[in-house]
Amino acid sequence: MFNKMLANLLPYMPKKLIWLFSKRYIAGEGIDQGLEVSKKLNEKNIEVTIDLLGEFITSLEQAEENKNQYLEIIERFTAEGIQGNFSLKPTMFGLLIDQEVCYQHIREIIAKAAEKNNFIRIDMEDSQCVDIEIELFKKLKKEFSGHVGLVIQAYLRRTLEDLTDFSNFPSNGYPLNFRLCKGIYVEPKQIAFKDYEEVRKHYLEDLEFMFQNKMYAGIATHDKFLVEEALKLIEKYQVPQTMYEFQMLYGVTPELRSSIVNRGHKMRVYVPFGKQWFNYSTRRLKENPKMASHIIKALFFRG
């Protein structure tokens, strides 16, 4: 209850105060800050996935603006030789306003990435978006086989069934490429597992299915237990290094991240930036109220 109260109050605090916490997890407001963070990660033998912050827009003008920003980001990051790719949220491009406009915007972005021999990851959003985003991915995968991937969420009860459906989808010479995460959106128990251990169990079940079916796995977790269990599955199925990578958020569990890199496994860090950082931070607080007390400690005890 206390954490929920804090989470509801923090969005009304001064942005400068919230930034003291957020700057650990967000590269900054502009492309230059994203480039700087990405270069430093590359120097540590870590690749990146770049994400422009913003989601659930209210106008198609915003969708057009976001598309143009992504085209600029792809141009800048590839010109600078950054080792990494790009992630995007379909609701930034009008998914819940006009699905065809959204598709055309994302198609143009993926075409730009393909021109640069790069890759776009379509993020999975809350349950109202899941079916639409899966169909969007399938449509784009047929045209841009090796240049587009999707996020799947282990806490959704439907995920293994979705993966089974995908196993029959034509890959056109390129493996299906999924980032597997636990899932962060607040969903009812009818469609999402709620128990911590239950989510872990299904995460590993989904990951094992991916390895068994030769799908490329982005193992996105900061859970040391899941990392160790994933490594056991990699060994069990003799998964080549070209078919998996570990993924983490910028600023989270750096020690665990380094230990994975030091063991010779590929690591990719999700680097978010943009002017919408405040909304991103406060929304994540509401989705995960337990973070609120940690923020207060960070603000007042670690400056």
TrEMBL record:
Reactions listed under catalytic activity: L-proline + a quinone = (S)-1-pyrroline-5-carboxylate + a quinol + H(+)
Pathway: Amino-acid degradation; L-proline degradation into L-glutamate; L-glutamate from L-proline: step 1/2
Class in the EC hierarchy, top level: oxidoreductase
Binding site for FAD: 124, 153, 221-222
Cofactor comment text: Binds 1 FAD per subunit.
Database matches in Pfam families: Pro_dh
Superkingdom of the organism of origin: Bacteria
Protein name (database record): proline dehydrogenase
